Amino acid sequence: HPDKTEFLSFTLGEPRTLSGTVVNEKGRPIAGADVHACLNQGRGNYIQPPIDPMGNLTTKTDAQGRFQFHGIPAAAGAEFEIQADGYAHVQTRGSLSDDYQYSAGQENIRISLPQAAKIEGRVIDKETGKGVSGVYVNAHSFAKTFLGRKTGAMTDKEGRFVIVNALPGKTGLNVWPPSFFNAWEWIMVQPVNIQTQAGREEKDITIEVQRGLPVEIKVTNEKDQPISGASVRITSKGKNKFCPNTNADGMATAYLLPGEYQINGVGCDGYLARKLEISFVLKENQTRDFTVQLFKMPGITGVVRDPKGKPVQGAAVQLVGGSRMVTGPDGRFELFDRSDNPGSGGKKNAILARHKTRNLVAITTFPADKKSCDMTLTPGFTIRGRVISSDKKPLPHAQVRIEDIPVSPNSHTIAKVNITVTVDKAGRRMHSNTTTTAGSKDVIIHVGEQTSSPSRPGKMTHSSPSKLSLNPS
Hints:
It is built from no helices and 39 strands. By secondary structure, it is an all-beta fold.
């Protein structure tokens, strides 16, 4: 509001450092390498270039091949992307899981870059034999150690491409549109896999492409109005996936080769996802079109209030198994149930509301067909403790996870609520804001210790969970 001043409170944690060395396969340092760090501060919370305004997630190695990042959050996991002239462009992350192999506070990280392989070739139209321009050729390494998914080059007017920083070894070549989200009419006739060698050049690679046949899927709501931003999933008989998105007119277009296909589902935020089994055969010189209707998700609205009955701004509200949001000045929220069968079979839902800085929390259950639910927050419990080893010594940097067990006749319908903190050097860390309910309350405490090994640095080992009963009195 223009006439109102808002005060925000921030709690800064102890900063950590990430440091290491980039070397070649002979163990010699590589100077001037570009090192980018990608951090994960918990499930789904990623920090990576270029969104960091201070630039502290991008650096260059010094004359000894060393790199260092300062001000890293204590609970962050990390992976790296590294580029250097004459060497392969690599990422240390070998999969897309949430398990990052490096952690804040690690030093003496050692990353070896293989010498780059070079790939030259041409993309041609199978029917005419002419080169296809404006195609991005991606070189994907099959190596488990690295994920070289950003290695590639654009074709020129003659359809030629040169990739100078490919990883050596078995490599698959794919063609992408200039923009990943564009409908793409060129399709590879067959996969192209090659064997590359460090420091050597693979020449005269030919990639044949063919114009696909358009398949259009129109997505509308219950009023036959177009829905933009819906995702359509199509699979071929060979299990290849195609996922076009609808435009402003509600139309999604996929370009496919002749064959057998199935539309498996359509989804869009705010609408119930539809699982489908629409099978069709696409023949030469044929086009197909389909229409799919989506229905609005069941929603629930309400107001979050403090113990004095005043609306609470900045409360994090989540429908368990559904959407989440932060309340505005009026304390209002609107949440959507994303389950497959909302409101069926007498099912109950649960809403968790939490204002961390004010230490106010609440959880409530209600019938799934209920349309409104106001919530009154109450002071949360505070849990303090110390993490020690079997020989009674404090365990610094251990992670403690508090898992709520809602007290309800339908507790099996409520997902677990997890909160994670990292202890300090003395093994201590105050934890607050567990969820409160009427009567006594149970939580489960899990403790994980940071370990380091050559194969999986930063891996967590966990203790046996402990049950703790809380009582408001």
